[in-house]
Amino acid sequence: MTVEQVNRIVAGDVRSAARLMRGIENGDRGAFETLEKLYPHTGRAYIVGVTGAPGAGKSTLVDALIAAFRQSDMTVGVVAIDPTSPLTGGAILGDRVRMQRHCTDPGVFVRSVATRGWLGGLARAAAGIVSVMDGMGKDIVLVETVGIGQQEVDVTYLASTSVFVLTPDSGDAIQMMKAGILEVADIFVINKADQGGALHVKMELQAMLNMKDSLPEERQPPVILTEAVNGRGVEELEGEILKHREFLVSHGGLVEHDRERARLELAEAIEGSLRDYISSGVDKASQDKLVEDLAQRRISPRAAAAELVNQLIRP
User: Which contiguous run of DSSP H or E holds residue 82?
Assistant: First the structure.
């Protein structure tokens, strides 16, 4: 059954892909076995991360980018990372709502994924779901992060091109200096550019980029003004994304990005395996006791973790 499902996914079967994505998000062992069989069929899609603070218009921009890439006759997958419902554990107000116009396009696949407590703007299942879209044969996979501010840089390890979105009135330019976003973003977008102050923010950002230490062969990140709600500036953004891909290919950077992505996937797999191992190897009563000791401040989180590890390795 696993081989049949892999063959269907490689052939572009949406139902089989959606079923596997759901299994990956739920942590089903069988889903990861299928993903292992699918992995050799991946590595062809170009991954673009779209990140930035909440309210910057990332979902609207991604929706406009889908249309631009489809105009260029490229198939598109979208992984939209959403906040988690405290009741169901699912995604709250999935970003698919803003991308409804593409729902009947067979060349587009949009999947919303809940963070489920993971920091850095990504969900634990994100890398696996990206691999499924890659295996389906999508040319471009857009990964839109949840929007959590200065911690939101994990997507730069997953994506070959990272787009950082800000707005004229958000004061993000100052925050970027604190967060070091200048060092990790490949393209900057000032969205909602019809608002006052967009040109001022662009000049300020370009001045900051000029002050940054860089090697002679490094590429200066462009700053693009967009109005995603009506599509202005989106074709220019698409062009810059493709230019960055060409730059990476010509300078060997794409190979390095693939290594960083592999490192992220390995770290994610190790952490997930350890969680599963602890859950299955330590009885619930012991875990509950440690949780109660933590709540009562009788033990620190580090000491509690050490106690769990000791229980696992003790003969």
Answer: strand 76-82
Cβ within 8 Å of residue 122, ≥6 positions away? 81, 115, 143, 145, 146, 154, 155, 158
> What confidence score (pLDDT) does residue 92 get?
45
Nearest to 281 by CA among 308, 253, 249: 308
Helical axes 2-10 vs 29-38, angle rounded to 10°: 50
Q: State the average pLDDT for the chain.
A: 82
Confidence of residue 123 (pLDDT cuts 50, 70, 90): low
The CATH T-level fold of domain 43-251 is Rossmann fold (3.40.50)
- In the chain the first and final C-alpha atoms are separated, in Å, by 38
Span 73-98, pLDDT tens digits: 999 999 988 754 434 444 444 455 55
Tokens of 80: 């939209």
Structure tokens at 50: 């779209």
Give the burial class of 229: count Cβ atoms within 10 A of its Cβ; 0-12 exposed, 13-18 middle, 19 or more buried: middle
Strand arrangement, sheet containing 140-144 = 108-114, 76-82, 140-144, 46-52, 161-166, 187-190, 223-225
State the amino acid at position 45 in one-letter form.
A
Query: What residues does each domain of the chain span?
Result: 1-41, 43-251, 267-313
Longest CA–CA separation in the chain, Å: 67
| Alpha carbon distance 161, 156 (integer Å) | 7
- pLDDT tens, residue by residue, 158-200: 889 999 998 887 665 566 665 567 778 899 999 999 888 889 8
Q: What is the pLDDT of residue 279?
A: 76
